[in-house]
Structure formats: C-alpha cells, structure tokens
Amino acid sequence: MIKKYAASGRTYDGRMAEAVRAVALRHEPAQDGSSYFYIHPASVAQVRKFLFNLLRSTSPEAALAKSCLIEIDLLRDEYGVAANDTRHPDVLSDRPWPFESGPS
Length: 104
Fold this sequence. Notes:
Blueprint: H1 2-7, H2 14-24, E1 25-29, E2 37-41, H3 45-54, H4 60-79
C-alpha cells in the first residue's frame, strides 16, 4: 500500500491511518452477537521492521513509512504492546527510534 501511495503521489491520510489501525489492533467481540469489542494490540514486529528499513531513503515512501511508524507508536501508547514486540523496530540496525532518542 505504501508503494502504491508513493507512486501516485499521495501522502499519509485517513485511509492509510485506518489501514495501520487494522494491522496493529485486534478486535475481539465482548460476547457472542454483541456489537461491543475488546481491542488488543496485534504483533507488528515484521511490519515495523519493513517500514523502518524504508526510512533509509528520502523517497516519498520514507515519509509515508515514518508516518505509519509514528501512528503505530501512538496506538501502542494507547493500547499497549503485543507480546514479543520490541520497543525498537530493528535493534540490529544501530539507528535510533524514535528519532528523538538518538544523537542530535
């Protein structure tokens, strides 16, 4: 989706935000037949690593990837972190995330 957005010159928007939410959160019905849901974090380690690797360039894909990573972090702040997901998208890369945590 990011590559398609970038190829058509689109920027991060509500549709992309909804796609990120759909990937990062699981909705579990509160009970059978109910319209209420429990919302739990889903494991997004591989997605975050892919997005983080896109940040290496200055392409439109990198800007979209950064926005997606920030949105995922905001969702993690609100709903928690899925089991086995790390704080950093790719620890072995030796690059800071979030950017504010790295050297100036």
